[in-house]
Design a protein that fits this description.
- Helix content is 45%, strand content 0%.
- It is mainly alpha-helical.
- The termini are far apart.
Length: 40
């Protein structure tokens, strides 16, 4: 939503996609590096 006027900037479906994508990136960022796991 626009902070200034309150207009919805994206559709509900687009918003759901952005939330899912953001969550996916967060989940990926929590995976430890192979070095941490003792990989070669």
């Amino acid at each position: 939503m626009c902070a200034k006027c309150g207009t919805r900037l994206v559709s509900e479906k687009e918003n759901e996609t952005q939330v899912w994508f953001g969550k996916s990136l967060k989940d990926l960022s929590e995976i430890p590096d192979p070095d941490v796991l003792g990989g070669s």
